[in-house]
Amino acid sequence: MSKDTKSVIDEFRSSVNMTVKELQSWLQTEESESVGQKDGDSESIGHKSGKQIVKLLENKKDEYNDDEISHMKKVISYIHRHLAQKPSGDIKNTHWRYSLLNWGHDPLKDGKT
Predict the structure, then answer these.
(1) Which of 30, 49, 75, 87 shows a CA-CA span of 20 to 30 A to 22?
(2) Exposed/middle/buried for residue 99 (C-beta within 10 Å: 0-12, 13-18, 19+)
(3) How far apart are CA 38 and CA 47, in angstroms?
(4) 35 backbone dihedrals φ, ψ, rounded to 5°
(5) Residue 57's CB: how many other CB atoms inside 10 A?
(6) Whole domain around residue 50: which residue ranges?
(7) Tens digits of per-residue pLDDT, 14-72?
(8) Which candidate, 85, 82, 96, 90, places its Cα nearest to that of 113?
(9) How many domains does the chain have?
(10) pLDDT number for residue 111
(11) DSSP character for 87?
(12) Residue 32 CA: distances (Å) to CA of 42, 85, 112
């Protein structure tokens, strides 16, 4: 495994702060399905991504193909970009937080909110 690939995996694991079980439960909620940009079908891009993240988190071998590493980079980028757009006030029940949850990150776990 190259150093770059290892750093992507490490950053992915630190950016995605939800467990498989937490993310799977979240993805089954109405709130999860109510947010995000839809790309021509009824499921949002973030919701689809959440399903892929579950599969990535379930991989215990640390053997990822190029598409999986690419998706990890996309997840990292989305989380960092979205965190920079944090709204003021209570974020608990906001579309902003719901979108992040779809991407495997709960900002309430950060300890900074």
Answers:
(1) 87
(2) buried
(3) 9
(4) -120, 160
(5) 18
(6) 3-109
(7) 999 999 999 999 999 999 988 887 777 778 888 899 999 999 999 877 789 999 999 99
(8) 90
(9) 1
(10) 64
(11) P
(12) 13, 19, 23
